[in-house]
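User: Hi! I'm a student and our assignment asks us to look at how structure tokens line up with a sequence. Could you show me two examples?

Assistant: Happy to help. In each example below, the sequence comes first and the structure tokens follow. Example one:
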Amino acid sequence: MLWLGIGVMVIGVALLILTIVLIKPLFKLAGVLGSLHKTTETLPQTVNELTTTAKDAIGTGVDTLNQVNTQMKELSPIFYIIGDVGRATNQLSSSIVSKVEHLKETTETTKDVSSNNNLQGFYGLIALAYLLFRQK
């Protein structure tokens, strides 16, 4: 029984020494955990604010996109009209180009005929007379 008492006493002294050695790091750990508690105490509120801000930003973006879509639907007929005018203008310019090409070919053929028959002076005289009578 004596040995049992000595063993318990040795274990008690060892635990006392261990407690004395570990008391300073445990206080530091308590300070760190207290600081962590203060930091994380405001975390839910901060996350809630960020979530609310993100929801508001996304809602504003959706509203803006809806407005743009509505305005584009209103402008679509104008774009169709502009496209139709562009196609009509293209067809008109193609028609004018073909007429000019035809006139150019006809003029070159007439020029060749007048040079072959030496009628340039005669045509010049007729053009001069036409201009003089036209001005009066």
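Example two works the same way, sequence first and then tokens:
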Amino acid sequence: MFRTSLSLTIAAVATAAFTSAASAGCYSCYTPPPQPCTTCYQVQSVPPQYRTVQETVMVAPGRVVAHRTPAQYRTVMVPKTVMVAPEGVAYERIPPQYATQERVQMVSPGYSYYAPVQPTCNTCGGGYGYGY
């Protein structure tokens, strides 16, 4: 019972502390950085850069195919059939097949930046150059 009431008390104090900071007007504690002067700077956009890459890829893997050769028989002088060559297996090795494939790859993503339009401006630093 004591633990339950203690945890409820701690939760109530924490809730009151967090709501009092929000109600005290601390919403503007963080001020965003000032925007650059629109007469001195202009937004420049750079599109993304792409390139075509050629790669050698395997189309079909190498394999080995087994061909069975049947036994060969002949009839000799006496009316009798004799085996001349036994049956066997001939293996044929087929090499892998490759092809060249092209794909488009992004080199650099697009981005935007502020570029100075005028070398000096009275509102952006009093004629010291780029707003310093």
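Here is something you could point out in your write-up. Residues 54-108 form one domain.
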